[in-house]
Write a structure and sequence with these properties.
Number of strands: 12
Largest sheet: 7 strands, antiparallel
CATH architecture: Roll
Strand content: over 45%
Oligomer: single chain
Order of helices and strands: EEEEEHEHHEEEEEE
Radius of gyration: 15 Å
Helix content: 10-25%
Length: 163
């Protein structure tokens, strides 16, 4: 069934923190695929992402208070599906999805080399919104490396791109 709010651009949000897993603190880098995100302020530049309360990436962002929004080309559809369908609790999504880590310049967080652009964000506020947490990030660095057709989610596992 079509949705009036779709299609929505898919991004891969990367994050990093030391988190408690089975009673042990471990360093984790992770990626989550999202299509619920948007700019919310010009001055200062703020960007919002919504993450389900049960998601592992939420725990990482709660711990570190930083994240990177990686804008991806439509050619990364399978990698977006993989990162959206699998939890990073017990796997390395960068390795399994064959995505290359680069270090962010303004925060302690990885970004994705294959991305066409990115926003490095520091969490300044968060709100519980039903079954999601809405994170408001102050954009500390941004770059559009190249203009390319982007990936948009129609509904479920159906995608499209820009013309």
């Amino acid at each position: 069934m079509p949705s009036i709010t779709n299609p929505r651009q898919v991004v891969l949000v990367s994050c990093r923190a030391k988190v408690d897993l089975l009673g042990k603190k471990v360093h984790k880098d992770n990626i989550i695929a999202l299509s619920w995100h948007m700019p919310v302020s010009f001055s200062p530049v703020l960007y919002a992402i919504a993450i389900g309360k049960t998601r592992f990436s939420r725990k990482i962002i709660d711990e570190s208070n930083v994240f990177v929004v990686n804008f991806i080309p439509h050619t990364l559809e399978e990698k977006a599906l993989f990162t959206g369908r699998n939890s990073g609790i017990h796997i390395d999504k960068f390795k399994e999805a064959k995505l290359t880590k680069e270090e962010a310049e303004s925060i302690d967080c990885p970004k994705i080399k294959q991305a066409i652009g990115y926003l490095e964000c520091e969490v300044i506020n968060q709100f519980e919104v039903g079954d999601h947490i809405l994170y408001i990030g102050k954009v500390l660095k941004q770059d559009l490396k190249k203009n390319s057709k982007r990936l948009f989610q129609k509904i479920g596992d159906k995608f499209t791109t820009t013309i």
